[in-house]
Amino acid sequence: MKILIVEDEKELSDSIAFYLRQEKFNCETVLNYSDAIEKINLYNYDVVVVDITLPDGNGLEIIKEMKKIRSNSGIIIISAKQALDDKISGLETGADDYLTKPFHLSELNARIKSIIRRRDFDGNNEIVLDELKIDPERLTVKVNDQALNLTRKEYDLLLFFLANKNRVLSKESIAEHLWGDNIDLVDSFDFLYSHIKNLRKKIMEKGGRDYIQTVYGIGYKFSTL
Predict the structure, then answer these.
(1) If phi over 0 gives left and psi between -120 and 50 gives alpha, with beta otherwise, what is residue 197?
(2) Quick one: which H or E segment has residue 214?
(3) DSSP state of 181
(4) What is the pLDDT of residues 183-222, one digit of tens each?
(5) To 10 degrees, the CA torsion angle through 32, 42, 213, 196?
(6) Residue 168: phi, psi to the nearest 5?
(7) Looking at the 3D structure of the chain, how many domains does it have?
(8) Which of 183, 187, 177 is nearest to 153 (CA)?
(9) For the CA atoms of 189, 193, 198, 199, what is the dihedral angle to 10 degrees?
(10) Can you say whether residue 105 is alpha, beta or left, with left for phi > 0 and alpha for psi between -120 and 50 degrees?
């Protein structure tokens, strides 16, 4: 899962990113308004964590821009301000949640996971699709009640497919989601093919369907039809 952190306090930004990376999130960080606007217009994120007060702008304007471009990212506001009107303004603008500094990183982590469950999986703690059963909290996958031994990238790939089932996904969008924004610098996506091949093989070895379809010249589709 891919997170953008918009926070001008570098020490706090680094702490949040370090913690969330330990939780296996793919994190990008920016320290100002202008870089945040560039990022959200170029890339897709599962959740954007944004501070209201930035050196060159206001975090609320970032949220407005996200709504303008119809971003489907979850949004969490973080701010030192404790005024009720700031919280109300943020939520009315389109944020999903609000945390007042200082906060525990474990709480931020829990709220991020909650938003992802609500946004992608109807709030369910367990994702069930036919013979597949995924527990996002325990990072476990079962096929026909048999445990599936996946690498972290294979697991993230499966979740991304499930969140976008029956949609054609470009190779670029899949790679960007799994490896971050700098993936657009690579010359080839052969490494992605290996992860998809291994995931498909492991699911089928446990008696699962061959869900992953190649859409030639474009990318892949996780088909449940």
Answers:
(1) alpha
(2) strand 212-215
(3) G
(4) 766 667 788 899 999 999 999 999 999 999 999 989 999 9
(5) -40
(6) -75, 125
(7) 2
(8) 177
(9) 90
(10) alpha
Whole-angstrom Cα distance, residue 179 to residue 144?
Answer: 30
Q: Is 147 helix (H, G, I), strand (E, B) or coil?
A: strand
Q: 117 and 218 share a domain?
A: no
Q: What whole-number distance in Å separates Cα of residue 94 and Cα of residue 89? A: 9
What is the domain-level CATH number for residue 65?
3.40.50.2300
Quote the tokens at residue 185. 């610098």
Q: Sheet containing 74-79: which strands, arranged edge to edge?
A: 26-30, 2-6, 47-51, 74-79, 97-100
Give the model's pLDDT for residue 83.
62
Instruction: For residue 25, give the nearest of 1, 50, 47, 6 by alpha carbon.
Output: 1
Residue at which a domain ends, from 95, 121, 147? 121
Tell how strand 212-215 and strand 97-100 pair up: unpaired
Which of residues 121, 144, 171 is at a domain's end?
A: 121
Domain that holds residue 176: 127-222
Helix (H) or strand (E) holding 2: strand 2-6
71, 138: one domain: no
Whether residue 102 is preceded by a cis peptide bond, meaning omega within 30 degrees of 0, is yes
Are 136 and 218 in a shared domain? yes
- What is the tens place of the pLDDT at every residue in 139-174? 899 999 999 999 988 998 999 999 899 999 998 889
- Whether residues 66 and 41 share a domain: the answer is yes
